[in-house]
Amino acid sequence: MEQGNKKKNAAAKDKRQKLVDATMRRHGHSPYALIETLHTVQEVYGYLDDENLKYVAESLRVPLSKVYGVATFYHFFTLKPQGEHTAVVCTGTACYIKGVPGILSALREKFFVEAGETTEDNKLSVLTARCIGSCGLAPAVVFDGEIAGAVTPDIVVERVGRLLEQ
Ligand code: FES
Predict the structure, then answer these.
(1) Are 141 and 148 in contact (CB under 8 A)?
(2) How far is CA 148 from its chain centroid?
(3) Which of 15, 97, 104, 135, when mutated, tests ligand 1's pocket best, judged by the most ligand atoms within 8 Å of its CB?
(4) Whose Cα sits closest to atom 1 in ligand 1?
(5) CA of 66 to the centre of ligand 1 (A)
(6) Residue 44 has what pLDDT?
(7) Which of 122, 132, 135, 158 is 20 to 30 A removed from 5 (C-alpha atoms)?
(8) Where are the domains of the chain?
(9) Rounded to two decimals, what is the model's pTM?
(10) Cα separation, 26 vs 94, whole angstroms
(11) What is the percent of the chain where pLDDT is above 70?
(12) Where are the alpha helices (DSSP H) in 27-152?
């Protein structure tokens, strides 16, 4: 069972990567695709992290410094949150109708954190993404980079609780 979940997680991870790759391909891997590609990264991961910024820089053959420049210049981009742990809640349509509001209120009630914010102790950042490419798993939440599908508010609270114990 655990094995099966791991496979599912890996497949879902690939889907996010594929969406990023598809954006770059659509633009012929041109350096001009930078902003659009960063948008896709943010949409599927919820934020821009070092690993993805490096990957995009290499794929589009743009200096990493420029990629960081663009990522920090525009207010609509969010760099990797300061929380020690992250929960990225997918708020795309499929996930939303399958219970995202309940998930976000459970996080608010139990951990006193709103979407887009980090807890006061800097332990947890809650972010949202717009369709992470795994609608079949809706509603989906990514806990520290690991996708979990068909989650309920209780499951989310339990998973986050476990993360915070680490
Ligand atoms: S809407 Fe959540 S994965 Fe597509």
Answers:
(1) yes
(2) 12
(3) 135
(4) 92
(5) 30
(6) 92
(7) 122
(8) 2-73, 85-165
(9) 0.80
(10) 25
(11) 92
(12) 34-45, 50-60, 64-73, 93-97, 100-111
Tens of pLDDT, residue by residue over 30-50, are 999 999 999 999 999 999 988
Look-up: residue for tokens 């947890």? 124
Terminal alpha carbon distance of the chain? 23
Q: How far is CA 125 from CA 4, 56, 153, 162, in A?
A: 28, 24, 17, 14
CATH of domain 85-165: 3.40.30.10
Q: How many residues does the chain have?
A: 166
Does 147 sit in the ligand 1 pocket, CB within 6 Å?
Answer: no
- Residue 81's closest CA among 42, 127, 39? 127
CA of 140 to the centre of ligand 1 (A): 7
Residues 6+ apart with CB under 8 A from 98: 138, 139
CB of 138 sitting under 6 A from ligand 1:
yes
Q: Is the beta carbon of 5 within 6 A of some atom in ligand 1?
A: no
Pocket test for ligand 1, best of 8, 13, 88, 90 (most atoms within 8 A of CB): 90
H/E run at residue 1: none
The tokens for 87 are: 């929960």
